[in-house]
Every structure is written in C-alpha cells, then in structure tokens.
Design brief:
This protein is about 80% helix and about 0% strand. By secondary structure, it is an all-alpha fold. The longest helix has about 35 residues, at about 1-35.
C-alpha cells in the first residue's frame, strides 16, 4: 500500500513541477512580448504562448475570480504557484508519514 501511495505522490509531484514550469514559461514569454524582445507574430513564440495559455487557463480562471482586479498586473499565476507549492509540501508530509 505504501509503495503505491509513494508512486502516486511522485507522479503528482512531477505534474505539479511541470505546471509550475509552464507558468514560468508563460510569464517569461509575456515579458518578452511586452518589451518587444520577441515579435508577437513569430510563429514558434506565439504557438508556445498559446499552448501555455490553453493548458493554464483552466487553472488560472477560478483563481482570477477570487482575487481582486489590480489592473495591468495579474497575480493569478503567482497565487497558482503558491498553491501548488503548498500542495507539494502536503504531499511530502504525507509521503514522510507513510514511510515511517
């Protein structure tokens, strides 16, 4: 039982890490677009940005409904990262308690 639980926790941990990396990639691309470092009409950059948005929007939309609108700055990616890190901490605690 404990081995299956640890395997499931590891899989969830890897998925959470991938989502956090997607948030960082989306943020960096949006900065590059904003400061005209990368052209918005570049096919690889725009397709990567659209893919990140498509994957992250289902997770970011509920957060955006709860946090107040701050104008130009969107804090929902930061809130998502904090929530995912809390989830990783809880899973690590569960994994440590199941090993003992």
């Amino acid at each position: 039982m404990a081995v299956g639980l640890l395997a499931l926790i590891n899989i969830i941990n890897y998925l959470v890490t991938i989502v956090i990396l997607l948030v960082v990639v989306q943020f960096v691309l949006s900065l590059l677009f904003s400061f005209n470092v990368v052209d918005r009409y570049s096919q690889w950059a725009s397709s990567l940005y659209r893919a990140c948005n498509a994957l992250l929007d289902p997770m970011l939309r509920p957060i955006q409904r709860f946090i107040p609108d701050t104008g130009a700055i969107d804090f929902s990616p930061m809130v998502l990262i904090v929530l995912l890190r809390v989830l990783q901490a809880v899973l690590a605690s569960i994994a440590n308690s199941s090993v003992q």
